[in-house]
# Entry
Amino acid sequence: MAIAVYPGSFDPFTYGHLDIATRAAMMFETVHIVVVHNPAKNPRLTTTQRVELITEILKSKPGNFVVSSLDTGLLVDYCKSLGADALVKGVRTNVDLDYELPMAQVNRDLSGIETIFIPADPTHGFVSSSLVKQVFDLGGDISKYVPAEVVKALSN
Ligand code: PNS
# Structure
């Protein structure tokens, strides 16, 4: 009956994120996808848009998903309020690991909650939200990298 939290900016949610979420759902009874507001980033899509998009995308996918957002406060406190056993993060490269490792350590230090790293499928190894936005802004085709719902939302 384990519960996981998969947090991120998801601005926007990519096929890489989708792969991690669905693989996490094979290991955990419930996967909470948490859209975290990062004041340091100027998001392209509002938190509400991101929550709605991810909910729509995951509707047809196997797994027990709950999508919510966190605007303020520590992620681990939110995890505790959800009764979460673990955090899940996708790792594409050693750069991701360098970024994620201290966060995993501080989160465990603060709360005892472990972080489970899931290696990205190589198909999505180079896909990032920021690259997707850049390609889109320069007129490129992003349909290989993000679900159709995301292409539509970015186009509006
Ligand atoms: O998709 P991102 O932007 O790489 O995700 C980063 C995120 C949201 C997972 C990270 O910024 C985070 O955990 N923020 C929550 C605030 C918090 O608890 N910070 C202290 C411990 S890391």
Q: What stands out?
A: Residues 35 and 47 are 7 Å apart (CA to CA). Residues 7-9, 36, 38, 74-75, 103, 106-107 surround 4'-phosphopantetheine (CB under 6 Å). The radius of gyration is 15 Å.
